[in-house]
Specification:
Layout lengths: L9 H9 L19 H9 L1 H4 L7 H12 L12
Length: 82
C-alpha cells in the first residue's frame, strides 16, 4: 500500500506509527512541472493544419495561438469553439 499524504502530514504518520502500523519510507522522488504555451499544445493535439484554427474565447490565448501559427503561414481560421 502506498500512502501519498503530501507535505505537512506529520500527524498522519504519527497516528499510524502510534497505532502500530509498520511504515517504510520510499527511496527518493523528484517532481517538476513543465508549462507549454497553449499554441504549442494546440499544434501537438490538432496538428499544424488545425492548431491555428482553435479558438478558446480567451483573448490572450487566441491571440498568441494566432500569432504562433501565422509564423508558419497559417492564416485560415473559423469561429468554432472547443
Amino acid at each position: 500500500v502506498v500512502l501519498a499524504t503530501g507535505h505537512s502530514a506529520r500527524d498522519v504518520y504519527y497516528e499510524l506509527h502510534k497505532s502500530g502500523v509498520e511504515l517504510e519510507a520510499k527511496g527518493f522522488a523528484v517532481g517538476f512541472r513543465i508549462e507549454h504555451p497553449q499554441s504549442l499544445i494546440n499544434e501537438i493535439q490538432y496538428g499544424k493544419d488545425w492548431g491555428g484554427r482553435v479558438f478558446t474565447r480567451k483573448a490572450s490565448t487566441d491571440t498568441i495561438n494566432k500569432e504562433h501559427f501565422a509564423k508558419n503561414g497559417d492564416t485560415v481560421s473559423h469561429t468554432g469553439t472547443l
